[in-house]
Write a sequence for this structure.
């Protein structure tokens, strides 16, 4: 029920974001986060997510595009929240796009996997990682 997305390499970022496919761009972390939140995705703890994006600048455009596309494929009642996960057992951290619902129906996991899987092509070969998953919590 979780997919790890490895974000694909960027191309020249000279053209403005509005004129380019964002999945091909390095964009400032602040712009990527603005685009993600304008898509209705929550970023409950902005500082660690922003720091991660600053450390992995090559994922900003692909991340924003993947988040937007995943948001568009899930029911509006599904809350999405982008958070930084820190593994307590090893020195590892990565972004997680959590999908949360008031009620988890029998197809929730399949729908989430299908939405994430369609966007794996945005996610190959970059320095950062994105996991798309649920933690079965109620929406924030």
């Amino acid at each position: 029920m979780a997919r790890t997305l490895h974000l694909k390499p960027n191309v020249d970022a000279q053209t403005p974001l509005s004129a380019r496919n964002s999945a091909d761009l390095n964009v400032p972390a602040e712009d990527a986060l603005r685009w993600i939140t304008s898509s209705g995705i929550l970023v409950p703890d902005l500082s660690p997510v922003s720091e991660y994006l600053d450390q992995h600048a090559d994922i900003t455009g692909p991340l924003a595009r993947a988040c937007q596309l995943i948001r568009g494929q899930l029911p509006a009642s599904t809350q999405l929240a982008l958070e930084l996960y820190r593994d307590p057992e090893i020195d590892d951290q990565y972004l997680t796009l959590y999908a949360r619902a008031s009620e988890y129906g029998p197809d929730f996991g399949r729908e989430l996997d299908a939405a994430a899987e369609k966007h794996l092509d945005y996610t190959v070969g970059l320095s950062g990682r994105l996991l798309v998953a649920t933690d079965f919590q109620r929406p924030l």
Notes: Helices lie at 29-38, 46-55, 60-73, 108-117.
